[in-house]
Amino acid sequence: MPASPDLIIRNALIPGGRIVDIVIREGRVVHVGAGGTGAEQTIDAHGNLTLPGAIDMHVHMRGGAHQSYKETWSTGTMSAVAGGVTMVVDQPNTLPTLTGRTTFCERVAEAREGAYCRFGINGAVTPDADLAGLWEEGALAFGETFAAASSYGEAIGEDDLKRCLGILRRLDALITIHCEEVLDGRDVDLALHSQLRSGAGEAEAVRKLCTLLSSGQRSHFCHLSSDASVRAACTSYEVMPHHLLLSQEMFAIDDAHEKVNPPLRTEKERKALWNVWEKIPVIASDHAPHSDAEKSGPFETAPAGLPGVETMVPLLLSLVYEGKCTLTSVLQKTVTRPSGLLRIIPPGFTPGASADFAIYPGEPEKISAERLHSRAEWTPYEGMDGVFPVVVTCNGRVVYDGGQFTFGAGEWVRGQGYKKNHEK
Ligand code: DOR
User: Fold this and answer.
1) What is the β-pairing status of strands 385-386 and 365-366?
2) Domain boundaries 7-50+349-405, corresponding CATH code
3) What integer is the mean pLDDT of 132-156?
4) Torsion angle of the four alpha carbons 363, 364, 370, 376, in this order, in degrees rounded to the nearest 10
5) 286 is known as an active-site residue
6) pLDDT value of residue 35
7) 53-342 adopts what CATH topology?
């Protein structure tokens, strides 16, 4: 007789309109349909929408000795889970940068202590990085690679980048790349910031980078912010909710809270990005928390970056409810495509899938920093509509239920180099 299930989600309305019971054992879906008995725990999802947990392949969880005032693995992943994200991929521009085995392993240990959801950790692409060592230790991918400088990231020169591309191609590892053209000048407000790091310049930088990518290179552009860049991309890429939903015109021009790289564009450019919505492979948040105090200082010296892991799916889902985009397109961009790109088992409604689910109500609520969980304690989406999950499971366990979190289901998702190294 098969062992009893750990969890059954009953009466789950799933994409496509079926109402099913989802039977879960040992972190995996074992049956989707009617029935299932004897589970340790049962959730009734009646009247709500059950979706696979999202994979946010671009977050900065901060933490460590120097940046825990901005975010920690606990606060960052609580924020993720409360926004329906059940896996985050952390970027390596930490302090210290993740360039070698020791710093990488320390980062994994820190994440294991704090993470409420699955996590992957990327290795850094810098002139001195030990790419093969990072791959063997379990880096999920590499980057964001700073082809242009940003907060906590120095630009890598072209020769070093070419060398790193060659190594990563041989390892068959994914490289993710931050492309921008950065002009000299004083970025004293949102408009100037966007002129010095323009959408057209970004598109040109993407075109140039494309000439360095050989066939068979696993590659992905980070946070493209203009329709021109999307059209210029020769490989996979991601677009962020803030470039789709926010523009300079929505804020006081010298408010550094909305300073981000690549910058918020004009309302006209923001709308143009929607013209290419169907083409976009991946949506990720670029969750880059900085404290309110840091963001309240002079524009020029304030760090760039916005918190966003908790609001990404809620914002998109409220657009689905409004009829602005389809649920299918949102799930492709936040679940299917990122899993394929990262070569991980996606959550879903078939036996064997990871049992990571988020259960959403039928109505949006107003986003308010007060009810979010990031240590940043502010959001650029204040007052906008978001559909937030009421219950979230990860690895077959309930990690979030009506505002309460349970620790213990977080799991490190290793890259393929780790497997090869440790399983032969
Ligand atoms: O605005 C940004 N902030 N862009 C980046 O590329 C890095 C990020 C950060 O780490 O704060």
Assistant:
1) antiparallel
2) 2.30.40.10
3) 95
4) 140
5) yes
6) 79
7) TIM Barrel (3.20.20)
